Amino acid sequence: MSLHPNGLETDASLRRRIEKLERINAALMSHVERTMDQRGSAYSLFQTAIMLEGRVRTRTEELTGLMHRLERSNEALAAAKEEAETANRSKTRFLAAASHDLLQPVNAARLSISALADLDVPPEARAIAGQVERGLQTIEDLIKTLLDISKLDAGIVRPLLQPVFLPDLLAELAESFKPFAERKGLRLAVRCPDLTVTSDPVLLQRILQNLVSNAVRYTGTGGIVLAARRRAGGVSIEVTDTGCGIAAEECALVFDEFFRGGARSSNGEEPGLGLGLSIVRRMAQALDHPLTLASRPGHGTRVTLALPLSAVPAAAAPPTPVATRLSGAHVLVVENDASTADALARLLQNWDARVSTFRNLAGVRDAVAAGAAPPDILVLDYHLDDGACGLDVAAYLRGRRVEPLPVIVTTADHSAAVEERVAADGAELVRKPIKPAQLRALLTYMLA
Predict the structure, then answer these.
(1) What is the CATH number of the domain that holds 354?
(2) Does position 334 have pLDDT exceeding 90, yes or no?
(3) pLDDT value of residue 91
(4) Does 28 map to a domain?
(5) Percent of the chain beyond pLDDT 70?
(6) Does residue 275 share a domain with residue 351?
(7) Per-residue pLDDT tens for 154-196?
(8) Burial per residue of 132-153, b for 16 or more beta-carbon CB atoms within 10 angstroms, e otherwise
(9) What is the CA radius of gyration of the chain?
(10) Residues 291 and 428 reside in one and the same domain
(11) Beta-carbon contacts of residue 336 (< 8 Å; ≥ 6 apart)
(12) Taking every annotated instance into account, which residue ranges of this chain make up the domain Response regulatory (predicted)?
């Protein structure tokens, strides 16, 4: 620093000090501005963080609310599903019980009509008996079909998969429908190489029975072909007819309940109940056998069922029993329904059998105590009064003799538990309504 002789700073020195202070001031102002900018950015970030936190909290609350609503919806759906399943099970139990009660009088009526047909009656009376028989058959089919649908919907039916030899099954089906086809002047052909598939033989037979029956009903001229052939990875069974065909807009509806379309049966009769193909679809789904339909109005219809090929050969079917006479055989009948017991007794007497009828085990015991002749075979109703079981009669009588005593159990209860218990007791099961021809064949076979 330079001083004037009188001790004051010179102008040049003062200017330099001012410039220096200005630089320092500029540096300080720049530092302050930078500090303010940084503080400003931090504040902005702070404000942004607060805003984002608010948004996150709002979205979290919204998501939590949605999750609670979803949980409530899932609980409501689960409750509705359980309610529907409970209703389905209740419906099945109701139909099973109702079917048992409804089939009892139908059974008595069919046995009475069959006994009447065996008598020496005028042709007109025989024709009327045939009409009544057909009406009873329709009622029986409807009751059983409704019960089947209920069981399939409730998941009660469990397929028992095993090897099934197709030539035997298809030949048997063709043989049973051949008289109906010939009556209408139709050809019924079977084409099946030696193929074994994996399926439930009972359900598979019911599916094919419904398909062939439908084909015969709606075919006026030509014929029906029941064919099986190898396909990629499996086997296809086709039921092809030359009938009236199905319109394109109805092809997707024919498997619905009670759908009969606009077609009439080829002989002018009313079409069926519209339940056969509904049963077919449900059974095919239970078996996991894909079902397809192709049709052209005026040309015919082809229904195809796809099945897996079995590597295991099917067991040979047992030989058909040879019928023998029932003359003189002593048949002991236990039946708590009076009309059914009377009708069954008349039918057996028409077959030249000796018949003893009882309502319960107490009556059988009294007869044995009185010295009644021992029976040759038993025909027992499964459900007796007061919760009693017909198999108790079999156990009582079998305990009083050394030689085997054949037993036939009749019931309108189609549950698996009944079937298992009858089989465990070594008895044969005949479901009501009893088919007289089936009963006679079984009686003669067991007595032989």
Answers:
(1) 3.40.50.2300
(2) yes
(3) 59
(4) no
(5) 69
(6) no
(7) 666 678 888 999 998 998 888 888 888 888 899 999 999 999 9
(8) bbeebeebbeebbbbbbbbbbe
(9) 42
(10) no
(11) 359, 360, 381, 383, 384, 385
(12) 330-447
Number of domains into which the chain is organized: 2
CA proximity to 347, closest of 117, 128, 193: 117
| Longest CA pairwise span in the chain (Å) | 170
Percent of the chain with pLDDT over 90: 20
Is the same domain home to 238 and 169? Answer: yes
Query: Which strands, in side-by-side order, build the sheet including 300-307?
Result: 187-191, 223-231, 234-241, 300-307, 291-296
Examine residue 31 and state whether it is found in any structural domain, yes or no: no
Please indicate, yes or no, whether residues 192 and 295 belong to a single structural domain of this protein: yes
Q: Long-range contacts made by residues 234-237, C-beta under 8 angstroms, separation at least 24?
A: 234/197, 234/306, 234/307, 234/308, 234/309, 235/166, 235/195, 235/197, 235/306, 235/307, 235/308, 235/309, 236/304, 236/305, 236/306, 236/307, 237/166, 237/170, 237/208, 237/304, 237/305, 237/307
- Which two structure tokens, joined as six digits, stand for 226? 């029941």
pTM of the model: 0.48
The parent domain of residue 213 ranges over: 162-307
Closest C-alpha to 187, from 237, 226, 224: 224
